[in-house]
Design brief:
With about 130 residues, this protein is α/β, with parallel strands linked by helices. It contains five helices and six strands. The longest helix has 13 residues. It starts with a strand and ends with a helix.
Length: about 130
């Protein structure tokens, strides 16, 4: 599933909830990013290989392969070892952020998404 506009850096949005993906796509395209989408952890790996995103927004609770394992597998691949992966999750309990970071995520965004902050947080991770 791909939605891409010319120019801008490419972000892979991994979320099994269509409404969540559509919201993030709208925010990112409005801020000049190109997007591609995946609906589960296995699809995330397939789309990452096919699309070569500059950054990945990874939901943690996914069917087939959870976001933590998908993150570990992507970072084990040489071509994605330095790709920033941000956990995008409704898991906002004590310790969840640390678990996401330990799995290889560089940052953590709790749902519901702060639409005013999302693009800035992505920019910080792309440029930082």
């Amino acid at each position: 599933m791909t939605t891409a506009e010319e120019g801008g850096r490419k972000i892979l949005i991994v979320d099994d909830n269509r409404d969540n993906r559509e919201l993030v796509v709208k925010i990112l395209t409005r801020n000049g990013y190109r997007t591609c989408e995946a609906i589960d952890g296995e699809d995330a790996i397939t789309q990452a290989v096919a699309e070569r995103p500059d950054l990945i927004l990874m939901d943690i609770s996914l069917p087939k392969l959870d976001g933590m394992e998908a993150t570990r597998r992507l970072h084990a691949m040489a071509e994605f070892s330095a790709t920033p992966i941000i956990a995008l999750t409704a898991h906002a309990m004590r310790g969840d952020r640390e678990k996401a970071l330990a799995a290889g995520c560089c940052d953590y965004i709790a749902k519901p998404i702060n639409v005013r902050e999302l693009a800035a947080q992505i920019a910080r991770n792309l440029n930082g």
